[in-house]
Every structure is written in C-alpha cells, then in structure tokens.
Amino acid sequence: MSLLIERIPPGPPPPPPPPGVYTKDTIAFNRYVDSIYKLDVKIGVINELSDYTDNSYKRDIEDSLYQELIDQYHSSKTSTCCIEIGKINVKRNRELKVFTVDSARIHIKSVENIINPKVKCIVNFSDVTLNEGNDKAIIYMGRYSHPLNGSTSLILLEKLDGKWKIYKRITLSIS
C-alpha cells in the first residue's frame, strides 16, 4: 500500500510535449515530474479493506501465475477488516488522513471538497493476495478525487531484490 500511495502524483500532469517529441525523453518533462513528486500532498485512506468480488472486475491476464492469484482472490471469502494506517510508511511530503467508508462517500460528494480540498484524493484497497513463494501479489485499488473523477485498478506486484515493485497496472474502471 505504501508503494501505491507513493505513486499518487500531488500535482497536475505536465503539458503535452511538442509534436514528434517523446515525453519521457525530454529533460524538461523529467524535471517537471521530479518536482511534482516533491510537493506536499494530503491523501485520504479508507480504513476498511474493500471487497472487489464483482465479476466485471475479473480479467484474463496473460501471465498465468497472476491469473491464478486473481482466481484465488475471487474464490476466497474476504472479510472486511481495518487497515492499520500507522503501518503504512510514506515519505514526509505525504500526509495520510483516515476515512471510514461513510465519511469518504460524504467527502467525495461534497461541494466543499471541490472548492477547498482537505485531501488530494481518497484511496481504498482490497486485501493483498500472495503466491506461495511470497514474491508475487495482486491488490485492487480505488482512487477518487471528485464525484466525477475516479478509477479502479488491479495492480500486479512482484518482489525483486527484497523490494516490492509494480509489475503491471490494469485500469478496470475510470470516470
């Protein structure tokens, strides 16, 4: 969860580059992205694990090991439990604010949130499903910045050299 929260940009995306220039090859683009991630940001975290059992969330993945994890997640009975926010380690420029499911719904729908945001966005997570070797995992993540701006993603993770890395992010829904 820490890794995914670190990947939430605190600022707007950079403007598009001139025609014919690949964005990640430009020095200006890279400096802009680096500067964005140094900004302070408040992120709301819903303190209960979400249960993504709707079949529309189930996708066929090319990598059979990850497909097995997805099938395992959808076949298991997940229980709603609380996330221990204190165990999520994030950089100093990230401030986490705890939301319950009900308070998050009110906050996202609030006009006050649009005018004077208390948080940049609100995120929620599913339970993590690990393989037997504890080196591959999946997690579902929802991210909401506004009543008309949100997304749900399936994140495939792998552990390389003792650190978790995002292997692939699959957008399941977006508004």
How would you sum up this structure, described in words?
The structure is a single chain. By secondary structure, this protein is of the alpha/beta class. Helix content is 23%, strand content 31%. The protein is built from five helices and seven strands. It has helices spanning 2-6, 27-36, 64-75, 101-109, 111-115; strands at 41-46, 94-99, 121-125, 129-130, 136-146, 149-160, 163-174. Strands 1, 2, 3, 4, 5, 6 and 7 form a seven-stranded mixed β-sheet that branches. It is globular and about 45 Å long. The mean pLDDT is 80.
What is the strand and helix layout of this fold?
Blueprint: H1 2-6, H2 27-36, E1 41-46, H3 64-75, E2 94-99, H4 101-109, H5 111-115, E3 121-125, E4 129-130, E5 136-146, E6 149-160, E7 163-174
Parallel strand pairs: 1-2, 1-3
Antiparallel strand pairs: 3-5, 4-5, 5-6, 6-7
Mean pLDDT, nearest integer? 80
Largest sheet: 7 strands, mixed
Q: Which structural category do the helix and sheet elements fall into?
A: alpha/beta
Describe the global form. globular
Please compute the radius of gyration using only Cα atoms. 17 Å
The fraction of residues in strands falls at 25-35%
Counting DSSP E segments of at least 2 residues, the number of strands comes to 7
Low-confidence stretches: none
Give me the number of helical elements: 5
Oligomer: single chain
Helix content: 10-25%
Q: Write down the secondary-structure element order.
A: HHEHEHHEEEEE
> CA-to-CA gap between the ends?
22 Å
